[in-house]
Amino acid sequence: MNPFANAVLDRFIFRPSRQPIPTRKQEFLLDVPWGKIQIWRERTPACGNAEPEVFLLRFLGARGRAEMGTTDPLNRLPDAKGEVWIANPPGFGSSTGPVSLRHYAASALLTFDAMCKYAAGRKTWLYGQSFGTTAALHVAAHRSSDWLVLKNVTPAREILRLHLPHGLKWLADTFALNFPTELDALGNAALAQAPALFLISQQDRLAPMSLQRSVHNAYRGPSELCLIDATHDQHVLEPDDDKRYAEFVAHALWCPVTRQSSFGIQA
């Protein structure tokens, strides 16, 4: 591995920020070998004074801050009693650096382990959007969870090759050679066994449908595919898409998991 190439790749992907961001979420600082992971926790309104029934760990995009994260997909179900955990990656917010893909992968596992310990046998879900899908797949490949949502799965190594100009092919090759295997979306998909929902935006220009489908095809566990009429970073979905999404979420929360899809695959 080339340390200089690793450092350039880390900074090429991540856009860290440190400024305080007001939030109503509850802060939890997790001790890790290189310092601390800042985790923000939020319960859904349906919890009230009751305990959550499901715990959800969300991974945002490469520029996202946990303070601003939503409770998606639990916000699709007004009656869902859940607690959402979102960690700031190393170098973001009060999470200790350095900004590093390998620390990012390690922090994903450590945060999930902490959530599972807190959940004490209750349902655990994973959610990843954009670059956060690499972390979600890494956890799914090495840990057991009840459900996994991947919105616009982003196989970063392949996307770097696709989007860098042809004249910078040497740089794309260098990045691909030094990209950590821990965040290899295709490799982790082939190991993950949790039931998964793939949300693919048909107007996604960052992660083309062909690349997203390649990850879906490689996925080892039972999976469902939902095509939505949206762009890569579009948060408000069309009413019909949002309704179908909510149906998938409701089924995952309240129906027993089976190896066969109950909704079928949206081609």
Explain what the structure shows.
It is a single chain. The chain is an alpha/beta fold. It has one domain (3-254): 3-Layer(aba) Sandwich (Rossmann fold). It has 8 helices and 8 strands. The chain has helices spanning 3-13, 101-119, 132-142, 156-163, 169-178, 185-189, 209-218, 239-254, and strands at residues 26-32, 35-43, 54-59, 82-87, 123-129, 147-151, 196-201, 223-228. An 8-stranded mixed β-sheet has the order 1-2-4-3-5-6-7-8, with helices on both faces. Helix 2 packs across helix 3 (132-142) and helix 4 (156-163) runs antiparallel to helix 5 (169-178). The longest helix is centred in the middle third of the chain and has 19 residues, at 101-119. It is globular and about 55 Å long. It starts with a helix and ends in a 13-residue tail after the last helix. Residues 257-267 have low confidence and may be disordered.
